[in-house]
Design goal:
352 residues; mainly alpha; 2 domains; 0% strand; elongated
Length: 352
């Protein structure tokens, strides 16, 4: 009996140390797992279409992910960081006088002064301009600091991406064996394990596809508006906007609404109205397309999905956008299984 307990303690200690060692890379592995589930149908199609082995089909799928998704995304991020780095140049910030930013600020304040004057409200335009300009400089300097933060974490970021891609490849290649092993190790019954995997799979697909498709449509609409109404740096602004679509509630609004304000300050009322129509359309995309895609893959309530994203962001950082809803789906599955065990399954529909 003593030997059995000692052996169990050694096994548990070994597993604990192994998990502790993997903790720094677990987020990358989890993201790799989510991506694998989303692109697994493509892997199966490649394997059937070209009659390739699992290894070669997994390699082709992973390379496709790199060239069609990862590299364009990295390009967008680098464009945004480069813009922030240029803004961070002290000479660039100090020489804002006479630039488009100053013209925009002056025009906006002049428009505000005219509107308030008609209402009989006195406004010290010079003092307000000085305050706004100083605040703008501070905002630009803070934003520029993000470029330095990005470059400081670049080595760790490359390592995480490498681990994520390796995870995708091996999950695709050995996915069936891993699922079989999971069934053997699962503390749940076979039907419960199957139900859990289906629930997580649907949730992951809903989160990823909902975010990517919605963000792409919003960015395309925004880019069209910026180009049609001649807003400067349209491509860069749209690229930054695409990254912001992954931020809950905020989304692409700073770019789209900011463009409307810019057009108004430039006395382009017609263009501002046209851009405003696009802003409404972009908002409808976020409120209709995203919930429709996510609800078609998962039963998570929209409020719970939103809270899980914010919670995931605070706990896991940027990857929490995807990991939070997955954990929420797992929690709901546990509740649903418990209620089913107690034969109160109708109540689970209200919680989902």
């Amino acid at each position: 009996m003593t030997k059995t307990k000692l052996g169990l303690a050694v096994v548990l200690l070994s597993l604990g140390l192994f998990v502790f060692m993997l903790l720094p890379v677990m987020k990358a592995v989890a993201l790799g797992g989510i991506l694998t589930i989303v692109i697994y149908p493509i892997f199966e199609w490649i394997q059937r279409r070209f009659k390739q082995s699992a290894s070669l089909a997994a390699l082709m799928t992973t390379l496709g992910l790199i060239f069609l998704v990862l590299l364009p995304f990295v390009f967008i991020v680098l464009m945004s960081v480069q813009a922030l780095h240029l803004i961070g140049d002290s000479q660039a910030i100090d020489s804002l006088t006479g630039s488009q930013i100053t013209q925009f600020t002056d025009a906006l304040l002049e428009l505000l002064h005219k509107k308030l004057s008609t209402l009989g409200v006195a406004l010290d335009a010079k003092a307000l301009r000085s305050y706004v300009f100083q605040s703008l400089q501070q905002i630009l300097k803070s934003a520029a600091g993000l470029a330095g933060v990005f470059f400081s974490v670049l080595p760790q970021l490359f390592l995480s991406v490498f681990i994520m891609l390796l995870t995708v490849y091996f999950f695709l290649k050995d996915g069936k064996q891993m699922v079989a092993l999971l069934f053997q190790l699962s503390p749940f019954t076979e039907s419960q394990t199957q139900s859990l995997l289906i629930s997580l799979q649907k949730s992951m697909k809903g989160v990823v596809l909902g975010s990517v498709i919605t963000g792409s449509i919003q960015t395309l609409l925004c880019l069209i508006g910026l180009l049609v109404f001649s807003v400067p740096q349209a491509l860069l602004l749209s690229s930054v906007g695409f990254l912001m679509t992954f931020i809950p509630i905020v989304g692409i609004a700073p770019v789209s609404v900011g463009s409307v304000i810019y057009l108004l300050s430039m006395q382009k009322t017609g263009a501002a109205i046209g851009m405003l129509v696009l802003v409404v359309s972009i908002s409808l995309v976020d409120n209709i397309v995203r919930p429709w895609i996510q609800s078609s893959h998962s039963k998570i309530h929209p409020l719970l999905a939103l809270l899980s994203v914010f919670g995931g962001l605070s706990v896991f950082g940027a990857s929490g956008i995807f990991l939070g809803p997955v954990l929420a789906a797992f929690a709901l599955w546990v509740i649903d299984s418990y209620l089913s065990y107690r034969q109160i399954s109708p109540a689970s529909d209200d919680l989902s």
